[in-house]
Structure formats: structure tokens, C-alpha cells
Design goal:
- By secondary structure, the chain is α+β, with helices and mostly antiparallel strands.
- It has one domain.
- The longest helix has 12 residues.
Length: 63
């Protein structure tokens, strides 16, 4: 199943129940939407080492 963290926005796959985000370690996890699941699959298919894509970076980081 695909999950999303409500705090940091991290998208990830896990089998079974999830209690905390593997990125920020907070426990505000929800099932990912269909759009989020598709986005994660696309990023993984591209072989991205991280799931942050250029257009997702805050303005300050893209300068």
C-alpha cells in the first residue's frame, strides 16, 4: 500500500500497518491518494534517488 505523511509529505510503499513516517518519524500517516500513488510510481520508474523533484523545491532552493 502507498502512504503519505501529513506532516512532511513523504510518499512511500509499505506492506501492512504503518505507525510512523520513515522520513520525519511522526505518526500522522494516511493512505495516499490515487494521484500521489501515480506520482510515486513515476518517480521510482525514473530511478530518482530521492522523491523530491525540481519543481517541488521551494523557491529559495531553486536559485
Amino acid at each position: 500500500m502507498t502512504y503519505a505523511c501529513k506532516d512532511c509529505g513523504f510518499l512511500f510503499y509499505r506492506v501492512g500497518e504503518v505507525k510512523e513516517c520513515p522520513s520525519c518519524e511522526k505518526n500522522h500517516i494516511r493512505s495516499a491518494t490515487q494521484e500521489e500513488t501515480q506520482r510515486l510510481q513515476t518517480l521510482l520508474a525514473r530511478g530518482k534517488p530521492t522523491l523530491l523533484v525540481e519543481e517541488d523545491k521551494p523557491y529559495e532552493e531553486t536559485r
